Amino acid sequence: MLYFLSNLSDGGDVFNLFRYITFRSGGAFFTALIFGFMFGRPLINLLRRKQGKGQPIREDGPESHILAKAGTPTMGGVLILGAILVSTLMWARLDNGFVWMVLFVTYSFGFLGFLDDYQKVTKQTHAGISARMRLAVGFVVAGIAGFWAMQLQDDSLSGYLAFPVFKDALLYLSLGFIPFAMVVIVGAANAVNFTDGLDGLAIMPVMIAAGSFGVIAYAVGRTDFTDYLDVHYVAGTGELTIFVAALIGGGLGFLWYNAPPAAVFMGDTGSLALGGALGAIAVATKHEIVLAIIGGLFVVELLSVVIQVLYFKKTGKRVFLMAPIHHHFEKRGWGESQIVIRFWIISLILALIGLATLKLR
Asked: What is the pLDDT of residues 251-271, one digit of tens each?
């Protein structure tokens, strides 16, 4: 919205600043951060009044959670989503298709997660929306996004899968790119959802991964950077840096209240939306495989659940003491803060490895 102020510039005044993605990203970050601080406490108070007992706590989970986390409200992801929406609409170019594609995925998954949280809270059950329904709706949303991304990308990249490290390696998938994008987006959404099990565990790795993809989006959206780095140029993706900045600002505002002991949980409202956003940005920037590196922590969390379920169905035994894997470490005696901080460190290391692929060509 504010980008139009650049039209008032003659090139040498303050309005010229609004032409720059870096300036508008900073504005989006601080707008989202202030939004989080302003509306965080009122939202938490509202959720407490409306939800009563808060999010249902798994009785088969770690024993400490039953006492420590009982009564904590959920749906705190509304705070992050509100901050992202306001900031992005204020600071991004609204004529950019990639911005709308990522917003579409984010808020579609956010609405799906909200409905899931609503059922859990109102019925005081862990069931929520059936897994089959969540996957079906998620794949439809992701399919639309995959097709949308193909229309926005240049013909030389549309329908292609790019590989990190190998600068000229492209695999033409044609319309097969759509189901591939569906797996990436839905997989990312559910991987973040499984990671969200301890206070502060999911939001910081999400912000780290988002920050990394902000760098990637900015780089692949500039020809001077892509020429230097030998990566594929995707026109228009630079504007996603503003969305990412808003996500980080909103995430920090949420973390202020989600830090141990959490005053609110993000719930599926936040985790599905943020995971879907990461997947959509990866698809837009042609860095889907790099997402598996940068978001390696989410991949491990997802795989731990898949392995546990499949192995138990086959043998009746468990590989982990409890899945997702962060609960396994809790069962082994690790403290919650110990797990959270160590997982943050792992996320940062993986992000740096993922970013290194930009130059390793």
From this structure: 999 999 998 889 999 999 999
Cis peptide bond N-terminal to 261, omega within 30: yes
Burial classification of residue 173, based on how many CB atoms lie within 10 Å of its CB (0-12 exposed, 13-18 middle, 19 or more buried): middle
Distances (CA, A) of 166 to 159, 208, 360: 18, 25, 8
d(CA 234, CA 155): 11
| The pair of three-digit structure tokens given for residue 99, joined into one six-digit string | 């911005």
Within 8 A by CB and 6+ apart from 167, the residues are: 230, 231, 361
Per-residue pLDDT reduced to its tens digit, 24-51: 999 999 999 999 999 999 999 999 998 8
Rounded Cα distance, 57 and 246, in Å: 31
Sort residue 322 into left (φ over 0), alpha (ψ -120 to 50) or beta.
beta
Place of tokens 């009982």: 70
State the Cα–Cα distance between residues 28 and 274, nearest whole angstrom: 17
What tokens appear for 256 in the block?
A: 């202020």
The residues facing 171 across adjacent strands are 161
The pair of three-digit structure tokens given for residue 294, joined into one six-digit string = 């940068």
Q: What's residue 61's pLDDT?
A: 56
* Structure tokens, 334: 């690790």
Contact assessment for residue 331 and residue 321, using Cβ atoms and an 8 Å cutoff? yes
Q: Which position has the token pair 């509304």?
A: 78
Residues 267 and 174: beta-carbon distance below 8 Å: no
> 47-93: per-residue pLDDT in tens?
999 887 766 666 555 655 544 566 789 999 999 999 999 999 999 99
| Integer-rounded Cα radius of gyration of the chain | 20
Q: What does the chain come to in residues? A: 361
Euclidean distance between CA atoms 324 and 101, whole angstroms: 30
Residues 6+ apart with CB under 8 A from 144: 104
271 touches 55 (CB < 8 A): no
SS3 content of the chain, % helix, strand, coil (to 5): 70, 0, 25
